[in-house]
Model the fold of this input.
Amino acid sequence: MLRYDDRIAVAVSGGKDSLALLKVLAKIERRFPASSVVAVTVDEGISVYRDEAIRHAEDFISKMGCVDHVKVSFKELFGFTLDDVVKSGEVDRAGVKPCTVCGVLRRRALDIAARRAGATVLATAHTLDDVVQTYLMNMLRGDVDKQPFGTRAELEGLVPRVAPFKLTPEVEVVMYAYLHGIPFQSHVCPYARTSMRDMIRNFLTEYEEAYPGTLYTALMSFEKLMKPSTAVLQKCEACGVPTSRKVCRACEILSCLGVEGVPVRKNA
Done:
């Protein structure tokens, strides 16, 4: 996933998983003087929930004292906060869920932040639980022509992503965070209950508790079933990022919300 001379952007939301990943990678990075670590944070504009998380991130990174911190926001990049478009009814009129808007635009914002930080790779704190949830959601949508999640893929125009916690169960990250004094959020995202992931998460958590080891088995099974994507990538007509269609998903959502696409290079 990582190279000895990478500049690693760690996606730090301020939650326990991302802070644990930052701590682990910063510790490992000390043994590789040609590499460096930078934290990148996206403020989607979710009152109370994200405000608390960003405070945790800023405090934690400040105490580390050796990691740069690059922050971007939906308001800066796209001209609105997630709360804005939900409360105004624009999300409902566009026929999408708040978590869809958040997830797609957050990925775009992280890529922009990683570019601003001069990163060669972007590390996210997705755990084993998160990865299996994603695979199951993709399967239910009939979308199986994917590369295995969290493995490095070099695509011109995008910062490659990796998921170092891909084989680490959520419960182990929780224990690590607890033992190392990493702060836990007291507020839950108000939009989580509307997402498909929330239903999948609850099902898999109960199933794993009843049948330990299921998540590992599911991960291996999903990746065996994957077929190499036959999609031909081209540049999005609106922003220029690689995509399998004329207009990428981020620009499609921005268009539905009445916002023009945001060119990556303009904001990098």
In short: The chain has twelve helices and seven strands.
